[in-house]
Structures are given as structure tokens and as C-alpha cells.
Amino acid sequence: MPFRLSSGALLFGLVSLGLLAAPGPAQAITADLARKCNALRAKQFPPREPANPAAGSAKGSGREQQAFFSKCVANSGKVDDGASK
């Protein structure tokens, strides 16, 4: 006698497997850390036109700015100023 799986049991199994395979919750950063890193990013990558953020950055690309911000968050707001070689 072959074993038959009902659709409800199959659905339950797939949902359970999906929940077990899901990664844990991501750690949220604090607003103070985000403000600090955003200010450091703005200092490191000044805007081309001071009153127009859509004009872009005078140095560096958006990808470099994003990497700088991520590095700042990963180091809890402690980044080097880029003066070192």
C-alpha cells in the first residue's frame, strides 16, 4: 500500500522547511550612528554644487559613497579620514 501525502501535510512541510531555512533577523543600526556616518560621508564626498544634491559628488561615485557608509556602520562610526596612503 503506497503512502499518499495529503495536500495539507505537504503544504505544512514546505512552509516549515521555508521557515527553518530563513536567515535570522538583521541587526538595525541606531539613528545616531546613521547620522554620524552620513555626516562623515558628506564630509568625505562633498557635493559638486552645495545646494543641489542631485548634481552629484565632487569626488567619488555613488558606489564608493555606499561602501564608505557601510564601512562606517560596520566600524561603529570609526573610519579613517583617508589622509593615509
| Percentage of β-strand residues | 5-15%
Low-confidence stretches: none
The helix count comes to 3
Total count of strands:
2
Strand order of the largest sheet: 1-2
Distance between the termini: 74 Å
Mean pLDDT: 80
General shape: elongated
Order of helices and strands: HHEEH
Largest sheet: 2 strands, antiparallel
Portion of residues within helices: 40-55%
> Structural class of the helix and strand makeup?
mainly alpha
Radius of gyration: 23 Å
Report on the structure:
- The protein is mainly α and 85 residues long.
- Helix content is 49%, strand content 11%.
- The protein has three helices and two strands.
- Helix 2 (31-44) packs across helix 3 (62-74).
- The longest helix has 15 residues, at 7-21.
- The mean pLDDT is 80.
How would the blueprint of this fold be written?
Elements: H1 7-21, H2 31-44, E1 47-49, E2 52-57, H3 62-74
Antiparallel strand pairs: 1-2
Essential attributes:
2 strands; two-stranded antiparallel ribbon; mainly alpha; 85 residues; 3 helices
Summarize the structure.
Helix content is about 50%, strand content about 10%. It has about 80 residues and is mostly helical.
